[in-house]
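re: that complex we talked abt at group meeting.

here r the seqs, copy pasted straight from the sheet so there may be weird spacing, ignore it
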Amino acid sequence: MKTDVIIIGGGLMGSSTALQLAMRGMHCTIVEKESPGRHASGVNAGGLRQLNRNPAEIPLTVEAAKMWRNIESLVDSDCDARFPGQLRVAENSDDLDLLEQRAALLHSLGYRHEEMIGRKELYQLAPALAPHCVGALICREDGYARPFHALTAFRHKARSLGVEYRVNTIVDGIEREAGNWRITTRKGEFQAPVLVNCAGGWAGQIAASLGEPVPLKPAAPMLMVTERLPHFIEPVIGSASRKLSFKQMQNGTLLVGGAHLASLDFHKEKSEIKWPKLAVSARSIMALFPQLKDVRIVRVWAGIEAFMPDNLPVICKSSTAEDAYHAFGFSAHGFQLSPLIGRILAELIVDGTSNFPIEPFNITRF
Amino acid sequence: MKENYPLVIIGAGPAGLAAATVAADHGVEVALLDEQPAPGGQIFRGIEAAPDERADKLGPEYLRGEKLVSAFRNSSARYYPDTKVWSLSEQRDIGVIHQQQAHMISAEQVLIANGAFERPVPFPGWTLPGVMNAGAGQILFKGSGIVPADGVVLAGSGPLLLLLAWQYLRAGVRVKAVLDTISRGNYIKALPKLPSALLVHHHITQGLRYQQTLRLAGVELHNGIRDLQAHGAESLESISYRHKGSNHTLETDSLMIHFGIIPNIHLSQAAGCDHFWHKRQQCWRPELDEWGSSSVKGILIAGDGGGIGGARTAEHAGRIAAFRVLYNLGVMNQQEMHLEAKQDRKWMKADLRIRPFLEKLFRIPESMLRVPHDDTIVCRCEEVTAREIRAAIADGHSDSNQVKFYTRCGMGPCQGRQCSQAVAHIVADQTSIPLQQSTQFRIRPPLKPLTLGQLASLYPDETE
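got the structure back, here u go
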């Protein structure tokens, strides 16, 4: 089968890239080893967060935030996105120092989307918070969406523009032949002049087969969700000194993350919950919301994500192979960036260069 | 509660009680965990407390459990009632709530003996108050003597339906009708299995006796009913069904339904044991060897949780698994294990002779399992209808887990126990991928409600 671009991986990055390329008139085929959203794209916490990003990601996250505000114009669905803000709470003066340094750093870079708020405003925004907190860093434009719904919207839109999804299709071989990529799978062969690697946890294998191995580490961050509760908190709550992300979803359930990792058998694609770490998460919640002591946990899970040693993604043209591109390794914070990543890759593929500063994400940095 | 045991048994029904007694009698330190306040499981629930009069009404089979329970009580096995297991890992770490306190314990060997539950079959109106599982109805009756005040209709399939109707009748409850989905076809298909079933005729003569008693008392008994529906604004007011080509309506505020029982596989699924679709029993079952060993090292399964066989078979399977555990722990050698298990194997084989007959006879019509009416709620927790599930499948979400992601069907507190089967049937029907090849919901702990406070109390020394 011949097409203009083959994209390996049908998650958000792959679907977003296919969508942007299709909007520029190119024909894309997505080769997906399972079903779209089986791993990171479907099971992440759905955070739309600019707050506390690595400075290298700030230009990207700011633009992505604009795209999320208008996501319906891109994918014909609001993806259930909400923008009640995200907070990093300070519980003592050390926390406060840490957050103030961060705010100063951001301001020195010329950005204003993160700012300090005092105790009074904090409790106006989050009256349910335990009374000992002293202030917070806030990004008022931040929020969250429903990841699997967002992915479905991207997929639908991409398909409506002619993108083909080949699911349950595992890539067995990648070869370059007379200016064409030839991808062999058990479900047939695909050929295209351009290849894109959006294979998430499996992207390291693809990169290695292009002759540029990367220190990608697949891991499975744990999330837990509780029973539904009457709405009591609007913004997403994080902490200056705890590994915690806490929000009440549209349906009243509480979604708790914190990047604590499950143990993962990557080969078998099986993760096992590490209860000691979740107990720490639960204690963090007890510290900030002691009134939730008797709330029942309904579900705990861990999806496979790709982590890089510096927690920054790889977004670039291949350094070894012609007409090959990478977008992977988002280290558990790619969801918010995903609409923009498709644009950046489409720019790289169609125009040969991107309007965004992506040098820090080059694969040659390792 | 200690942190580690050589053997932990989950479930104090016939399988768990028999296994615990054998293991304890051979000097193994056993912890038996059970959700109920007293031993006996569902079948022998509350047996130690049942007043003689009610025990008499419940029939002689019920008293068979007395022996099992007293042998267990006299053994050295440690018994933890009111104890819920909320997690079981491949490494045999067991998350437990005992007296409101969360614990994490571990075991060298785990025997899952948590039995079966009533097959959930969604039909129009099944979520209305007044519609109840016959098993739950029987628990109310056995446990507290509570019966429907204004009469009852019983509908579905399976031995429990007749038994409960008979028990209600004896307790003076007005049984308005017993509506069975068994068709003539089922009888014809079951007939070839009858000769071997007759070898364990007590099951069949018992069934016939119930039927006869009900008929003599003037109870309407109908076979081959179709299109069962429950109606009512706030709660059940009437039911309707098709019988012999015409529609019927019955006024009632109480409907007991029963569509047989299926193995409780949440624990074995959570632990990563392999399962397969059992066509005859129309359910998933764990893959087990002749000792009850699962595909996961150190995890065994006995009783209805390993496949429906009934109480007597469960008792034998419990003992057989216990002998295997004793061998695994080095208490017995191979020869002793085989010798000890011989008698139980013989009895179990004999008891299982009835099964092919019962499976054919009480087979649920596939048309019912596919949830034909679009408006029927399939997922009670998240209120997802058959229509929404079909729409999701048509939209390209072509397996159970994608349907779950998209519709939230199966994401509620019951962890998909109520809807996983129906979703699998609908997916198989829509995609033409046979159930045997279909994927099951991935099980996400906790399997039982665990509060944030309880989780926070675990591993107090652990830090970020």
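couple things i noticed - The interface with chain A takes residues 87, 89-91, 93, 95, 104, 272, 395-399, 402, 405-406, 408, 411-413, 415, 442, 444-446, 449-453, 455-459, 462-464 of chain B (CB under 8 Å). The longest helix of chain B spans residues 311-328.
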